[in-house]
Write a structure and sequence with these properties.
Layout: H1 2-19, H2 32-65, H3 84-112, E1 125-132, E2 135-140, E3 145-148, E4 150-154, E5 159-165, E6 170-174, E7 178-183, E8 189-193, E9 199-205, E10 217-223, H4 225-238, H5 244-250, E11 259-262, H6 284-295
């Protein structure tokens, strides 16, 4: 009786807790890239569910049909050397499942690694997103703006994030708009996305990067193009320019709130791409040392 009440209490507690949970963000996509990945997740869940149901059905059938109580005491099972049909099913179905999921995974990967479908005729907005312990720096080279721990993007326009890191490897992730992409030192990776609706979205580092990892988050706000243009104009009228000394202070480990500057750190600390790829990337002292060694 005690075991029964303990089980009922557990079920009741789980029901209360789960009713308060928010829907999974990855299954509530707000952009074409995220929708593609959500579809892959649902296809995988459906495929695994079908397999599980079939396996459990076979298991129950075997347990009931061939249970010991139904056989006589002198029953001996027939000796079967092989069965081509059974062996074909055992080998063939797993192979078909792997091929199917492989095709789905590869095709979806190619799809999310390019400009979002339906936005091919638009010029993407390029934003450099760099991480440091434990914050995110967003540089808009075309708008000549830099923000920290938040990013504004226009809706219905392709966005091209250029990712890299000033510290350990991090993973740039906006669950409702796109999947994860690593940000690393000495190289730039590219993440494509688009927001189909105005709104606020959560972004974070999804790769453990030290004690401040849990709060290594940023806010994403999708605006109409008109609102975005007004925001850019307002920043140029109110924000202070970013300086090299100030940027080097920002790179020091710690948490910060939201900051906004005119100009970008790309002018004095360029992203590790092109002629800067693989070298000349780090703090000011490292760049000076590199320059001195080059002169010698």
């Amino acid at each position: 009786m005690k075991l029964k009440w303990a089980f009922l209490s557990l079920v009741f507690t789980m029901a209360i807790v789960l009713t308060g949970c928010e829907p999974l963000l990855v299954l509530n996509p707000q952009g074409p890239q995220a929708e593609t990945q959500a579809n892959v997740i649902w296809i995988s869940i459906a495929t695994m569910s079908v397999i599980l149901i079939i396996v459990l059905a076979i298991l129950i059938t075997v347990l009931i049909k061939y249970r010991a109580s139904k056989q006589s005491d002198d029953y001996e099972p027939p000796h079967i050397k092989s069965n081509p049909i059974v062996e074909g099913i055992i080998i063939g179905f797993p192979v078909l499942i792997i091929i199917f999921l492989g095709i789905v995974s590869v095709s979806s990967t190619y799809k999310v690694e390019t400009t979002p479908e339906g936005y091919e005729d638009q010029e993407p907005l390029i934003i450099y997103a760099s991480s440091s312990n434990w914050k995110w720096h967003f540089s808009y080279p075309e708008e000549d703006i830099e923000t920290v721990n938040y990013v504004f993007i226009p809706e219905d326009r392709p966005i091209e994030f250029k990712l890299y890191s000033y510290g350990p490897i991090t993973s740039f992730w906006i669950p409702q708009l796109a999947g994860q992409k690593y940000a690393m030192a000495d190289m730039v990776t590219t993440l494509h996305l688009a927001a189909e609706n105005p709104g606020e979205y959560m972004g974070r580092n999804a790769n453990f990067s030290g004690e401040g990892f849990a709060e290594n988050k940023f806010d994403v706000t999708a605006l109409t193009q008109k609102e975005f243009d007004e925001w850019v104009e307002d920043i140029h009228q109110t924000a202070e320019p970013i300086t090299e000394d100030e940027f080097n202070e920002l790179l020091k480990p710690g948490h910060l709130g939201k900051l906004t500057f005119t100009g970008t750190h790309l002018d004095f600390s360029p992203a590790p791409e092109g002629e800067h790829a693989g070298h000349n990337h780090g703090d000011a002292s490292e760049q000076e040392d590199h320059s001195e060694h080059s002169n010698h």
